[in-house]
Amino acid sequence: MSKGIPKRFALVFGTFLLSVLLYIDRICISTAKEHIAEDLMLNDRQMGWVLSAFALGYALFQTPSGLLADRFGPRKILTGVVSFWSLFTGLTGTAYHFFSLLIYRFLFGMGEAGAFPGIARATFSWIPMKERGLITGINFSGSRLGAAFALPVIAWLISSVGWRTSFYILAGIGFAWAIFWFLWFRDDPSQKKNISQNELDYILENRQKPASADQQRLSLRYLFRSKNMWLAMLQYFCSNFTFFFTLTWLFPHIKKTFGLNAVDAGLYAAIPLIAGAVGNWFSGWLVDRIYKSGHWNASRRIPAILGFLLAAIGLLAGIKMQTVGPAVFFLSIAIFGADMTLPPSWSFCVDIGRKHSGAVSGTMNMAGNIGSFVTALAFPYLKVWTGSVTPFFIVGAGLNIIAVLTWMVMRPDKRWEDF
Q1: What is the pLDDT of residues 172-228, one digit of tens each?
Q2: Which of 28, 225, 230, 296 has the most crowded CB, counting CB atoms within 10 A?
């Protein structure tokens, strides 16, 4: 019998590291914004299009990458997509004009689109139902910690070796993870060597059982007839509208508004992301705690509704603050709340999708990243049109209230084809 760390925990550590890398690669361009804009002679609206190009590529390829993960398994798909996006991370460092940068970031977004749907598919096969919420929270906390770590560290790295070399270094790290994943991971725990019989029996007995309909190939036409699917997409659009601000405009906004240097701005901008990581942990724990008490629907609804309410309050309170400390404090509350919505959202997709959880979660994430696409453009354009950032935060708060109402009618206990 194999001893040591359970293999499913080692799996989660690997996907946690992937989540960290995913957001380090993603936020690097925000940290490098001023250097890139200066070198390539770009204005804020052009940079808004560069940031939104990633979100558009990321959104459009969510469902296709989820379908691929369901069909070919997360081992091959995650290896492939990490290699693909690492290639375009490196190529970002070679950009010499606006259009090349726009294309590289769109293709980079295409690659990153496969990450979380692939992780969701691995979660279905490897993780017992009663551990799903916390494991999802841990995985998404990696993205927030990765982004928080990246803000000051990438700022230092850029000042040390330049923005182009920084992208080359990140590309190399991505290729290394892809090699590790392909060699270590297997699509089903029964295929994994050296897993103990006790752990294998525990996983097989407690993971969600597929229905007979899961053996059929998923039809997108029928998927989009699902009320659960549309509700999941709407609320995730609202969640991402709030969160994506921290990955795109928070750093330059804080730096310019409060007259900070790059490293100090990075440290302040990291605080909401750390709050987001804590929000993921707390929400994941709460999801599992309520589920174990026998309330499946409530275990998803309560953490999500609480999170969206906190996000709305934080955004509205933050616009009243005149100094960096209080402004970051309330924004941290907003991001804590927005990230509380992630474990119930992704658990919901695995709940209703089962063996099609890659496609279902990818479709939800597609809608969410249309929200990200809108955010990257809404912030600079609303500021130009109105002369203030206040309308952006009011819109974000309103979307969070809409999401609260959405969660009141979502049904985690109903398969996508049944509701």
Answers
A1: 999 999 999 999 888 888 888 888 888 888 888 877 666 554 455 556 666 777 788
A2: 28
CB neighbourhood size of 80 (10 A): 18
Domain annotation covers residue 412:
no
pLDDT on residue 189: 85
Tokens found for residue 333: 């509350």
Domain extent, residue 382, equals 7-206+225-407
Alpha-carbon span 210 to 190, nearest angstrom: 16
Segments of the chain with pLDDT less than 70: 1-4, 208-222, 357, 416-419
Say how many C-beta atoms besides its own lie within 10 A of residue 320's C-beta: 10
- Give the predicted TM-score (pTM) of the model: 0.69
In a domain, 33, yes or no: yes
Burial of 401 (0-12, 13-18, 19+ CB in 10 A): middle
Whether 183 is covered by a domain: the verdict is: yes
Q: Identify which of 112, 361, 113, 333 has the alpha carbon closest to the alpha carbon of residue 218.
A: 361
Total count of domains within the chain: 1
Is 98 contained in some domain?
Answer: yes
Tally Cβ neighbours within 10 Å of residue 99.
Answer: 9
Residue 411's identity, in one-letter code, is R
